[in-house]
Design brief:
two-stranded antiparallel ribbon; six-stranded mixed sheet; binds zinc ion; alpha/beta; Lysozyme-like
Length: 318
């Protein structure tokens, strides 16, 4: 059981997980109030598909339909992996479902999947899922074909972000089809496999971190901001080889220690993986916008780099 996250906590958790987040105007106070069992204590997260891929689907998740007032989820995930926040309170997404499933989720006691549901919205004894689950509506026709990689990855990150914020494992993540015996969504994959991907993400960035500074080294290494920027901007190079600079590896090691970069990418090349990792760090420092020229575009900046160095034992020079 857990107290629901505030809107600000939700936003911070999603950004820290590296998601491209958009905020629908008014999302912080857009909810279904205290209908049914209200909102919370919360016990898990639920994945849905919209059943269509019309550009207007995001607005339907926001405003609802004649038979189902919005919000219809806490967030809407577009095909390109962009996440739009639509609610921070009670939303019309889960409906009634099986209390035995809820108990298995609360206890995180099952092996690969919770017990099959035998209830649905309106059936006798159904439990109000809208009070217990955060919901994600994913733009998908529901034909069973795979989601684009960026969309799938964003769904994994959304689920992991909320689990991490609550201290839950991936067993707190279910699909709508696992909650209600009426529902087919999400159709694109087996939820047991999805949970494995969420858990891998949770495990990868919660491993114990190495000590902040190497113990035997008396002097801190220094990293030149201007040389680093040059290396970042010429990798990949238009022609020839990228600018080689030893400080790149120092910074990559720090990003790896932060859980933002796989160790295999600590290679001295300021390529796409390193830029992504630096974007993640810049977002942790409060910067936004990953497009070129924006504050979290992965090209090193003085403030965020200095903060990384303070934490990981290097100084920043001009
Ligand atoms: Zn659904």
């Amino acid at each position: 059981m857990a107290t629901p996250l505030t809107a600000s906590q939700i936003l911070a958790a999603l950004i820290a997980e590296g998601l491209d987040v958009k905020e629908h105007p008014g999302w912080r106070t857009h909810d279904r109030g205290n209908r049914g069992d209200g909102w919370g204590p919360v016990n898990g997260v639920m994945i849905h598909h919209t059943g269509g891929t019309a550009p207007s689907d995001g607005e339907i998740v926001w405003s609802g339909r004649a038979d189902l007032p919005g919000p219809c989820a806490h967030a809407y995930l577009a095909k390109d992996g962009t996440l739009t926040l639509t609610s921070a309170g009670r939303a019309n997404h889960a409906g009634g479902g099986d209390g035995a499933v809820l108990q298995a989720v609360i206890a995180e006691s099952y092996t690969t999947r919770p017990p099959a549901p035998h209830k649905h919205d309106g059936s006798p004894g159904a439990v109000d899922g809208n009070a217990r689950f955060y919901g994600l509506e994913v733009s998908d026709r529901g034909t069973g074909s795979a989601w684009p990689a960026a969309q799938y990855e964003a769904a994994v990150r959304w689920a992991a972000a909320i689990c991490r914020a609550h201290g839950w494992t991936a067993k707190s993540v279910i699909g709508h089809k696992e909650w209600s015996d009426w529902k087919p969504d999400p159709a694109a994959f087996d939820m047991a496999a999805f949970r494995q991907d969420v858990q891998a993400r949770l495990d990868a960035s919660t491993k114990p971190k190495p000590p902040a500074a190497p113990v035997p080294s008396p002097a801190k290494p220094s990293v030149s901001l201007s040389k680093l920027i040059k290396a970042a901007k010429t990798d990949p190079p238009k022609s020839g080889t990228p600018v080689s600079y030893a400080g790149v590896k120092t910074v990559e090691a720090a990003l790896a220690a932060e859980g933002l970069l796989a160790k295999s990418y600590v290679d001295g090349h300021y390529g796409t993986a390193t830029k992504d990792a630096m974007s993640g760090w810049q977002e942790r420092c409060g910067y936004r916008g990953r497009k070129p020229g924006q504050a979290a575009d992965g090209i090193p900046g003085k403030d965020s780099l200095t903060r990384l160095g303070k934490k990981h034992g290097f100084t920043v020079i001009a």
